[in-house]
Amino acid sequence: MSTITNHMPTAELQALDAAHHMHPFSANGPLGKEGARVITRAKGVYLTDSEGEEILDAMAGLWCVNIGYGRDELADAAARQMRELPYYNTFFKTTHVPAIALAAKLAELAPGDLNHVFFAAGGSEANDTNIRLVRTYWAEKGHADKNIIISRKNAYHGSSVGSASLGGMVGMHAQGGIPIPNIHHINQPNWWAEGGDMTPEEFGLARARELEEAIQELGEDRVAAFIAEPVQGAGGVIVAPETYWPEIQRICDKYDILLIADEVICGFGRTGNWFGSQTVGIRPDIMTIAKGLSSGYAPIGGSIVNDEIAEVIGNTEFNHGYTYSGHPVAAAVALENLRILEEEKIVEHVRDVAAPYLKQKWEALADHPLVGEAKIVGMMASIALTPDKASRAKFASEPGTIGYICRDRCFGNNLIMRHVGDRLIISPPLVLTLSDIDEMFERILKSLDEAQADII
Ligand code: PLP
C-alpha cells in the first residue's frame, strides 16, 4: 500500500477511512457513505480540511484545546521528553521528574487541600479511578457498605464501563449492559427543559434536594459520594440555577458524602477561573481532570484528591493503575501547557476580556426567532432551540432534528458548533480574540437564519 498522506485526494482518504476506521459515537455505516471531513492542520482557533477550507473551531476539538492549536512549545516539550525519558512507569517504587513536577504544580493550582494526584490517560479512566478511590476510602474507614455513588441523569463522565455508568446518558445505558451496580441517578438541574411552572430558583433548590431525598431513601450509611460536572457539558451546557450548588454542598456536608467535581471540561480556565468548582462555589473532595490539562496535545487526566482521602488510601495498597498513569511525555506537555496558561494570563483573558464580550453577544442570540434561552458560563455556552419561547415548547419533530439541521448549516459555513438534541453548544479555545468572536457570530447568525429557512 502506498503511503497515506495529507496530499492524497479527499475521496481516497475518505474511502480508506470508511473501510478501516471505526469512529467513536458514530453510525459508521452511514458515515462511511457520506464521507468524514478530513482535518489536516490547525493553527490558533482555525482548522484546515483536505479541501483547503478554513473552519472556525468553536468546540476546541472536544472541549479541550484551551490554548489553541499549533503551539510549538508543546511539540518541543514532547520531543525533549521523548529523547530524555520517553516512558517509565510509577508503579513499583519508582517515579520520574515530569510526574513529580506536574503533581506538585496541580497541588499548587487546585483549591483548598486538594494536594494529591492519581494520573490516568484521560477523563474516563480518571472517573473509573474515582469509583475505586471512594469505595476503598470508605472501606478503609470501616464502612465497606458505604459504596453507592449518586450521579445525575444526562451527565457525561466518560465512555468506559465505570465512567459511563456514572454518566446518565440514556443512549449509552441502552448498550453494553451498563450501569454497573450501586450507581444511582437523580434528575439534572435543567430548568429550560424540566422546570415546569417553577422559577429557576425554586427549581434549583428542588433538584438539589433530590440528592437529600436519595440519600435518605438509600441510607446515609450506604452513600459514598456524589459526582457532578460544575456545568454539565456534553449534556448540553446546562447551567444550574444559582440556588443549586450551595444546597448540594450543604447536603454533602450534612451527610458526610464525598463530593466529586468532574472538572474534565470546566477545569483549566474554561469557566473564567482555574476550576469550575471555584466558579460555582463548591469545595470538592476529589476533582476529575483531563482535556484542558494538556490542551488536548497529549492524552492525560487524573484525580486530584484531598489530604484526608490521600492519607486513608495511603494506608493500604491501592490495587489500581494504568500503564500510562503519569506518562512522562504527556506530563511534560501538560506542564508546558500550564506554564502557557499561567504566563500568558489566559484564565484572566477569559475572565476579563473574552467571556464578558462573548456573553453580551451570546445572550443577544435569545432574540433570534429560533432561540429560547441562551446560557453561558465563561467560555462554554448553549442555546435552546424552540418553536415558542414563551411556553418553552419543544419542536414536534423527533428531538435533535432541528439541532442537527442547525449544526449542519454551521458545518457548511465552516463553523464547528455541536448540537445536543435541540440545543446548540460552543466551547471555543480560550485564546479566542474579540475579532474571532465577531467572525464566529457572523457564521452563527448566518447558519441560524439558513436553518430557519430550512425549517419553515
Ligand atoms: N468527564 C467529562 C465531564 C467529560 O466531558 C468527558 C469527555 O468529554 C469525560 C469525563 C471523559 O473524558 P475522556 O474522553 O478523556 O475519557
TrEMBL record:
<dbReference type="GO" id="GO:0016223">
    <property type="term" value="F:beta-alanine:pyruvate transaminase activity"/>
</dbReference>
<dbReference type="InterPro" id="IPR005814">
    <property type="entry name" value="Aminotrans_3"/>
</dbReference>
<keyword id="KW-0670">Pyruvate</keyword>
<keyword id="KW-0808">Transferase</keyword>
<keyword id="KW-0032">Aminotransferase</keyword>
<protein>
    <submittedName>
        <fullName>Omega-amino acid--pyruvate aminotransferase</fullName>
        <ecNumber>2.6.1.18</ecNumber>
    </submittedName>
</protein>
<dbReference type="InterPro" id="IPR015421">
    <property type="entry name" value="PyrdxlP-dep_Trfase_major"/>
</dbReference>
<dbReference type="InterPro" id="IPR049704">
    <property type="entry name" value="Aminotrans_3_PPA_site"/>
</dbReference>
<dbReference type="InterPro" id="IPR015422">
    <property type="entry name" value="PyrdxlP-dep_Trfase_small"/>
</dbReference>
<dbReference type="InterPro" id="IPR015424">
    <property type="entry name" value="PyrdxlP-dep_Trfase"/>
</dbReference>
<comment type="similarity">
    <text>Belongs to the class-III pyridoxal-phosphate-dependent aminotransferase family.</text>
</comment>
<dbReference type="GO" id="GO:0030170">
    <property type="term" value="F:pyridoxal phosphate binding"/>
</dbReference>
<keyword id="KW-0663">Pyridoxal phosphate</keyword>
<dbReference type="Pfam" id="PF00202">
    <property type="entry name" value="Aminotran_3"/>
</dbReference>
